Amino acid sequence: MHMQQPVQVGPKPLTRADVHAVARGGAPVELADAAREAVTAARAHVDRLAAAAKPTYGVSTGFGALAVRHIPPDRRAALQQALVRSHAAGAGPEVEREVVRALVLLRLRTLATGHTGVRLGTVEAMAAMLNAGITPVVREFGSLGCSGDLAPLSAVALALTGEGLVRDADDRLLPAAEALRAAGVEPVRLAEKEGLALINGTDGMLGMLVLAISDLHRLLDVADLTAAMSVEALLGTDRVFAAELHALRPHPGQGRSAQRMAEILAGSEIVASHRGPDCDRVQDAYSLRCSPQVHGAARDTVAYAETVADRELAAAIDNPVVLPDGRVESNGNFHGAPLAYVLDFLAIPVADVASIAERRTDRMLDVNRSHGLPPFLADDPGVDSGHMIAQYTQAAIVSELKRLAVPASVDSIPSSAMQEDHVSMGWSAARKLRKAVDGLRTVLAVELITAARALDLRAPLKPAPATAAAVAKLREVVPGPGPDRHLAPEIAAAEDLIRSGAL
To answer: Quick one: signal sequence residues (predicted)?
Structure first.
C-alpha cells in the first residue's frame, strides 16, 4: 500500500519531517524495538500498582474532580471505556485528515516512550490503524488545550476500541468497527490507565504547529518572490536589498529575505531602465523598501516556533506519568501554554506579511502611484475593471487575519468543577492559525497574478530571469493581460501553484 520509507516510532523524538511525512505524505510507521521494551517495562509497573491496595490516580481511581473515588478491579475496564466514550464529546465540522493523522502519530510516539503505562498490544493497534489509513472523525470543538486535547484524542481512542466513526483510506465514512475489521485490526479492550493515557496529550496542538511551520516556510519564500515582482513592476530600486545595508541590522531572517529579493531581481532590464542619473525617485514606499524587514521578522518568528515544536516533539506528555523507577506521578505537563503562546505568536506575522502584500498590490492598481501602468491594470479602463475587486478580496482577508491574530491563549474558562481552573486554549490558537495560513496563501496568490500582469505590461522591457520564470510558470495556468475574465478561478489556480511548491 505504501511506497515511502516507514517512519520509526520509539522513545527517541520524532522530527518535523517525520510528522509531515506521515500526516501529509501517508508514510507508514513502525515501532522500534526499544519502544517495545520500554512499553513492556512500564506496563509491568502499572500492573503492580493496579494490584495494590493503595489507590493510584488513573489506575484505580476516577478522573479529574472524581479522582477521590476508588474503583474496584472488576469495574476498571468499564471505567476506561466510559472515560473515552464520555470525553469523545466534540462538536462542529470534521477536522482535516492531515491534522488527525498528525495527532495519532504524536500520541503513538508518546505511548512508545514507555512513560504512559499502556500495553504493547494497544500501541501496536494504534500503529496498525494509522498504517491502514483509518482516520477517526474528530470534531472542531472540544479541546481547551489543557489536560491535553481531550475530546479530539478521545475520538481517536474511541475508534481504536471499535466505536464511533472513521474515514477509511478511500475517505469513505464508516463505523470504526467495520473499518478495523476490513483492515484486520482487532479493537482494543482498554485496561487500567489506558483510556487516560490515550487522551492526555498536546498532540493536536503540536501537529497543527508542525504543519503550519512547514506551510510558512514555503509561503515566506513565495512572499519574497511576489514582493520582488511588485518592486520590479512598480519601477522600484533593488539597492535597498544590498547585503551591506542589512548587515547593519543583523537579524538573520531579514538578511535572508533581502538576499533572496536581490537575487530574484538580478539581471532585470526593468530595474536597470530607471537606475541612471535621470531617475528622480529618492526612495520607494515602505511596502516595497521594508519588505525584507517584515518578511525577515516573520522568518525569525517561525524559527522560534521551531524551537518550541522540537522541544515538544521530544516530550512525553501524560498524567499521571510512569517514571523509570516505577513511580506513577501526577503532573501538569499536559498544559498547552508553551504551544498556545507560539501558535498565537505566529498568527501576528502571518497577518502582517499579508498586510504588506496587499499594500504592494494596491499600489500596482492605483494610476497615481503605479508609474505608468493602466488603472487597475485593466485592458480598457472604464469598460474593464482589471484587478480592482481582486484587491477587495485581499483586503477582506487581511481584515480577517487581523481578527485571527487576537490571541486565544489569554482566555481561560474553568472546567471540571473548578479542578481544571486554568486552561491554555491552545487548540483554538492552532485552529485559527490554520485559517490564517490559508488566508496568507490567497493574499499572495492575488499579488502574484497582479504583479505578473504588471510585468507583462512593462514590455518590451524584460523582467529578471527569476521573475520571468515565475511569470512563465503562472502563465501555464493563468493567461496574460486582456479583457476582463472570471478572476476567481485564476486566483484559485495561483493558490494551487503556490501550494504545490512549483513556484
So the answer is: none
Given CA atoms 381, 384, 390, 393 in this order, what sign does their dihedral have?
positive
Which uninterrupted H or E stretch holds 141? strand 139-141
Given a cut of 70, the residues of the chain with pLDDT beneath it are: 1-3, 64-65, 277-282
Half-sphere exposure of residue 128: CA atoms within 13 angstroms, side-chain side: 19
DSSP state of 61: B
- What is the CB neighbour count within 10 angstroms for residue 225? 23
Check if 57 is active-site. Answer: yes
Report CA-CA distances (Å) from 164 to 135, 147, 155, 197, 336.
Answer: 11, 22, 7, 19, 26
Query: DSSP character for 240?
Result: G
pLDDT for position 277 = 67
Name the residue with cell 500596482: 364
- What CA–CA distance (Å, rounded) separates 212 from 302? 9
Q: Is the pTM of this model over 0.85?
A: yes
Order across the sheet with 173-175: list the strands: 135-136, 165-167, 173-175
Q: Which helix (H) or strand (E) holds 87?
A: helix 76-87
C-beta separation of 269 from 224 below 8 A = no
Looking at residue 60, what is its pLDDT?
A: 76
For 57, the 3-state DSSP assignment is coil
Q: Which of 209, 182, 194, 213 is nearest to 153 (CA)?
A: 194
Question: Which whole-number Å values give the CA distances from 184 to 129, 132, 174, 180, 409, in the listed order?
Answer: 9, 9, 15, 6, 42
Q: Which helix (H) or strand (E) segment is 30 a member of?
A: strand 29-31
First to last CA, the chain: 30
Which residue type sits at 161?
T
CB count in 10 Å sphere of residue 111: 30
Task: Give the per-residue pLDDT at 55.
Answer: 80
Question: How many helices and strands, by DSSP H and E, does the chain display?
Answer: 19, 9
Classify 92 in phi/psi space as left (phi over 0), alpha (psi -120 to 50) or beta.
left
**360 SS3 class:** helix
Which tens digits make up the pLDDT trace of 393-442? 999 999 999 999 999 999 998 888 888 889 999 999 999 999 999 999 99
- Please tell me whether residue 243 adopts helix, strand or coil conformation: helix
pLDDT for the residue numbered 279: 65
Q: Are 117 and 44 in contact (CB under 8 A)?
A: no
Task: Identify the structural domains of the chain with CATH numbers, from first to last.
Answer: 7-201 (1.10.275.10), 208-275+284-500 (1.20.200.10)
β 165-167/135-136 pair status: antiparallel
Q: What tens digit of pLDDT does each residue of 3-13 get?
A: 689 999 999 99
Q: Are strands 29-31 and 328-329 parallel, antiparallel or unpaired?
A: unpaired
Name the percent of the chain in helix, strand, coil, to the closest 5.
55, 5, 35
The DSSP annotation for 320-335 comes to: SEE-TTS-EE---TT-
